[in-house]
Predict the structure of Adenine phosphoribosyltransferase.
Amino acid sequence: MSIYGDYLKSVIRTVRDWPEPGINFRDITPVLQNSAAFRKLIDSFVHRYQEMEIDAVAAIDARGFIIGAPVAYELNCSFVPIRKKGKLPFQTISETYRLEYGEATVELHADAFREGDRIVVMDDLIATGGSMLAATNLIERSGGRVIETAAIIDLPEIGGSDRIRREGHSVFAVCEFTENE
């Protein structure tokens, strides 16, 4: 957890029973609307990665873009979007992963990375870990090396962060929520 984790956790809104009964949706919108909170959020990632050799921040469509682009800017490295299928205009590689009900596919431009590029993968939240692992697989298939996976929020009870670690990747989250919070 970051030095600002408790503060940012207090700003994140929990919407109970959305989008369906029994789900606690963690809404980052209040963080984005509060300039001090948004700065602390971006600084949490920048402080973590500023002394590491990072070639690119790869962020997952769409909320990952909100944090990935300013972090890449601050780290003076490239920003690479990992998009939902059919959204990228050039030659792509794709990775399909399982959802609770069905499948989803993410894509990456085939020329996004050079062999050995050091990449941080970012998204807003880690739940099951499916989209994050699909992104890491894409990056590795394209020649990149995943240095760490990062998110604003980890939901450890769902097991995604453990699943990502079992696949050999480091996980950083600014804050985490249990189901009862």
Observations:
- Strands lie at 13-16, 24-27, 56-60, 78-84, 92-99, 102-109, 118-126, 145-154, 171-176.
- The two ends are 16 Å apart (CA to CA).
